[in-house]
Amino acid sequence: MDFKRVYYASKTYYILAVVAVVLLIFTTVMAYNQVMRMQKSAEMVTHSVHIYNHLNMLTAHYTQADSEAFKKRLINPENSKFSIENYQAEGRAILDSLAVLVHANATQTDRLNKLETKFQKLYKQLKALDNTLPGNDTLNFNIQKTLIGATLFEIRQIKNSMLEEEQTLMAQRKVSYASSKSLAPLILLSVALIALTVFVLAFIKISRNKTRIRQSENFLKNVLGTTDNVINFYTPLYNNKQEITDFKINYANACNRDYFGLEPDDMIGKTVLTVFPTLKDSPNFNKLVSCFVSKEKVKFQSKLFMNNSLMWFETLVTPLSEGILVTARNTTAEEEAKAVQISLKKRLENQNLKLLDNRALLSNIFKSISHIVMHLKSIRDADGKIKDFLILFVNDRINPVTGEIPEDLKNKTVSAVYPEIFKSHVYNHLVQAIETNKTITYNVPYTKNNKTHWFSATAIKLGDGVTITLRETTEEKEKSDELTKLNEQLVIRNSILTDAESIAKIGSFLWYVDSDNTELSQNFYNILEVNPSTYQPTLKNFRNFVHPDDLALYDEKVALSVTGRVSNEYIYRIITNSGTVKYVKSNAQFIEKNGTKFIIGVVQDVTATIKADEELRKSNLELRQINAELDSFNRAASHDLQEPLRKIQLFISRIEDLETQKLSERTRVYFDKVKKAAARMQGLINNLLTYSRIDSSQSDLEPVNLNVVLDKVLEDLAPDIKEAQATVQVSKLPEIRGVFFQMEQLFSNLISNAIKYRRLTETLQITVAAQRVSNTEIPEDLRLHNTSYYKILVKDNGIGFKAQYADKIFEVFQRLHQKNEYSGTGIGLAICKKIVENHQGYIYAVGEEGVGSQFCIYIPIY
Predict the structure, then answer these.
(1) From 546, 687, 750, 780, which residue has the greatest number of CB atoms within 10 Å?
(2) Helix axes 68-75 and 80-101, enclosed angle (nearest 10)
């Protein structure tokens, strides 16, 4: 270790001074505490003496009650009341004083409380004695005296206990006081010796520092004499208003002779404006004044014409306690080098004109971008490894991005403010920039309000820290991603455009209005059935292809596009180069840009579409005829088909009533099958009619309270519910726009299904509930378009079904069980689906075999 360097270092003496002051303060505090302990011990002894005195006063007080003289005064009718009241007041005062003295001692306080009780008892006995005259009732008088004596004995016992306690405390306090009194002189002597030692050491240090200051002054004079800078020291001169009017030159080095031709000795004692008259009324003189007044350094450039040449100086003005120190550095060589550099720059400018033009736009963009600038200081562990950063600076541009106030971030650690950087690559980039002293550039995302912002960051080492510049590139990244996507899409579109035009029979064109030049796509030529190499694409030439009967329409639309500058879509006929008549649909748009007028558009061969429309019209006529036939069938099913069925059921009923007993066992079995088949046929026809009569139009929609609908359904199904011993739980249902009897049919079918397909081993539980949902809460695969819906659930714990049959159960005549297992026609759920779709809703089922089923219905809210 370099002990000599440590010895001469000022930091060493600062540390020793701090240690000496701390030691002196410590010993002084010890002495003060010792004196305070001695004072406290003395106070405690005095406190015990006060208690002794009050106990003695208390003894004298209660002793009076035992004296014959007091008793004689007591039995004197003229002054007994006065004596007892004064006596009691005297005792109360002594007890109150004792209570104040012993309040910190719980044991003595408890004893004093007992003592007060005894004195109250004594006063009562004295009053009783006062009311008993010895001549009239000698026996009672003597009894009262005996009781007073017993009470006085108890008071005496308690007082003696308190006295013994105080004697013990007095002994302890005397010992403590004696100890404190013996230590106090030693501690005071120690404080004095330490103070003397600090004084001697300080004196030695001051003496040595004075010697070193003299040496430093001589060294400074040598430095000032050999430096290349002009160094002068000025003190201010004031007028009557205490305003600085000039400066007195107190010191000037030899450089004044070299640069200005002025002798330093001749300058000392003169004023600045006398030696340098060019400073009068100059801004540089005001800077000298400002430096001394504000006590802040001032730096400025100045130029002087000296010795027939122009000289440049960089002046630094430093405020001192009594004046200002002016240091002027000759920068003439640097300025001349700058002039040469400017000359070279001008020659380079001519060569870089194109480069500057290209950079102009980029420069303007950079000027319009606001950057976030942060400076972080490294926090290292014992091994010198960076473990965290301290935020020393951040500019105001961070507020619009994160909402944070720069002042609130300063002097906080990065781990407390941005802990996420330690989990990403950002921390490694910052460490790399500091450890390698290289500029690191990286991209970093920042998420705010569920939106990700991207920043381009540059990290540059500064000291033992890093300066980070963040530039938001979110828009650039989005545009870049969008451009990449658009380029990909453009490649795909260009690749399929030709095929698409050919498949769709579309051709595109671009017509320049003023020059009548036209550009056509390949498929346009194909539609016209012409060769591009032999056909001149102009509006006039194309007009020759237009069918004569459609020329008026064509000319009208073209004129409207040019003069009205509007988009037009119309259909007309053309006659191709081979003589084929085609229908084409044209759509054009007028555009004017940079003084150029042109029309862009497409032409589609819609000949097949026109023919298809004609075929569709014929198909619609046939469909109307088929619908009429279906209506006839519905009427036949309603009347003609049911008439023979009703007769069959009638004859079955009569045979059952009259001939059942005459039938054999086998014949009864066949008869039951016929009866069930007729009933099933009746149900099938009814369900088919119900299914066919559900109209998809919404003209008859009206407000329907689903609570009323469900109550009616439950009332109709009450016998079946009771027979199945089922429980139905219903929450409040909404009011919708619908058809009452259809919603009744919907709930009836769903609840009937739940009863039919129940498990016999468990009690059937049916739940009907509803809630309002937005379309964002509905699964995307349903593709519902209304803003909000009512979601209605009908759930049971029946036999359920397998997941693969979730769609099949809604088809007509689809059954998952045999007819002999469960009755039914297989149309009930198909009717439910048609009813829901008629209300512009959706229904689906979720089931698990052996667990139960759940039907979910979405009805739109209008």
Answers:
(1) 750
(2) 130
The residues, ordered by sequence, that sit 6+ positions from 146 with a Cβ below 8 Å of its Cβ are none
User: Do the domain assignments include residue 704?
Assistant: yes
Token duo for residue 654: 């009569």
User: Could you write out the DSSP letters of every residue in 481-528?
Assistant: HHHHHHHHHHHHHHHHHHHHHHHHTEEEEEEETTTTEEEE-HHHHHHH
CA distance 178 to 362: 90
> Which domain does 480 fall in, by range?
476-504
The three-class DSSP label of residue 806 is: coil
- For 508-533, the pLDDT digits (tens) are 777 787 777 787 888 888 888 888 88
Contact between 236 and 323 (Cβ < 8 Å): yes
Cα–Cα distance between 840 and 861 in angstroms, integer?
10
Handedness of CA 77, 81, 83, 88 (dihedral sign): positive
Question: Rounded to whole angstroms, how far apart are CA atoms 859 and 767?
Answer: 18
Residue positions counted in the chain: 862
Encoded amino acid at 188, one letter: L
Q: Is the dihedral of CA 251, 257, 259, 260 positive or negative?
A: positive
- In 10 A of CB 431, how many CB atoms? 18
- 27 and 120 together in one domain: yes
**In degrees rounded to 5, what are phi and psi of residue 290?**
-60, -40
Q: Quick check: 510 and 519 in contact, CB under 8 A?
A: yes
For residue 676, CA distances in Å to 114, 723, 844 come to 106, 21, 31
Instruction: List beta partners, residue 388.
Output: 379
Q: Rounded mean pLDDT of 773-788?
A: 74
- Note the maximum CA span of the chain: 167
Q: In whole angstroms, what is the distance from residue 326 CA to residue 318 CA?
A: 7
Sign of CA pseudo-dihedral 181, 186, 187, 188? positive
How do residues 224-274 score in pLDDT, each as one tens digit? 666 778 888 889 998 888 888 899 998 888 888 877 778 888 888 889 888
Do 140 and 234 sit in the same domain of this protein? no
Phi, psi of 843 (to 5 degrees): -135, 140
Is the pLDDT at 776 greater than 50? The verdict is: yes
DSSP 8-state symbol, 77: T
Domain end, chosen from 149, 179, 197, is at 197
838 with 737, same domain? yes
User: What strands, in cross-sheet order, belong to the sheet with 568-575?
Assistant: 517-520, 506-512, 596-605, 581-593, 568-575
User: Rounded distance, CA 55 to CA 63, Å?
Assistant: 12
Q: Which residues pair with 238 in a beta bridge?
A: 244
- 421, 414 Cβ separation under 8 angstroms: yes
Strands (E), 686-730: 702-705, 727-730
423 shares its domain with 572: no
HSE value, Cβ hemisphere, 13 Å, CA-based, for 572: 24
Q: Which of 588, 524, 536 is nearest to 562 (CA)?
A: 588
